[in-house]
């Protein structure tokens, strides 16, 4: 597996895209995931990212997109988010990325008022439509497991059920190791995602709240999860480090270097890097 990072680590501290990409390549990453807004990105920025990644020989693998409106109870809202997500799929094709990393929304009003089954079905419908569109573009959709109480996909069992019910070859799962820990998911449960997962996120946390820390700064025991991921035999998959909101923005380069160093070590020990 290759080792990548989401470039939002640099973007969130105000570093320009090109400089961030140059740091990513210099540090030693094999690939990059690009965090952007596909509906508002300027054509000049699209070209700049493509040219920089080509110059650096840094393949773009994934584009994260949060589309909570895909499970909204208003038809026009769902339609808007379908069209917005299509823009990400188009951009992924332009950049030669493999997938769009899709974050679905949450159940409204504590699963009261609106039957939970309705929101679930809206998610199935919208993701299937997006899968059809992604198939035409040669792009996959990787669904994110969010470890929050009301998230539609907040457990491995929910993810398996959703992927199976959606029943689309382009709609698959992302594995986020810290999210597994926060959702009390055992490494043994990762086996349920065999044949269903296509991408991996890696970060640490304190075991209580969402953290996105470099490995070693939290409590996550990575070895059993990485072994479980290895046993999934995910061909051509990438492990992407996800770092958010560094407590010392002025030291973001060191923060990313530390994350790379520790993750590369973990992947090597697990026999995953290559």
What structural keywords apply?
TIM Barrel, 274 residues, alpha/beta, 9 helices, eight-stranded parallel β-barrel, single chain
How would you describe this structure to a colleague?
- The protein is built from nine helices and eight strands.
- It has 274 residues and is of the alpha/beta class.
- It has a single domain, classed as TIM Barrel.
- The radius of gyration is 18 Å and the shape is globular.
- The model has no long low-confidence stretch (mean pLDDT 96).
Compact summary:
The protein is an alpha/beta fold.
Can you give the mean pLDDT? 96
Which topology does CATH recognise? TIM Barrel
CATH superfamily annotation: Divalent-metal-dependent TIM barrel enzymes
Q: What is the count of β-strands? A: 8
Structural class: alpha/beta
The dominant shape is globular
Task: Please tell me the total number of domains.
Answer: 1
CATH architecture: Alpha-Beta Barrel
How is the topology of this model organized?
Blueprint: E1 2-6, H1 8-11, H2 17-27, E2 31-33, H3 43-56, E3 60-66, H4 75-95, E4 99-103, H5 116-137, E5 140-143, H6 156-166, E6 171-176, H7 177-182, E7 197-202, H8 222-231, E8 238-241, H9 252-269
Parallel strand pairs: 1-2, 1-8, 2-3, 3-4, 4-5, 5-6, 6-7, 7-8
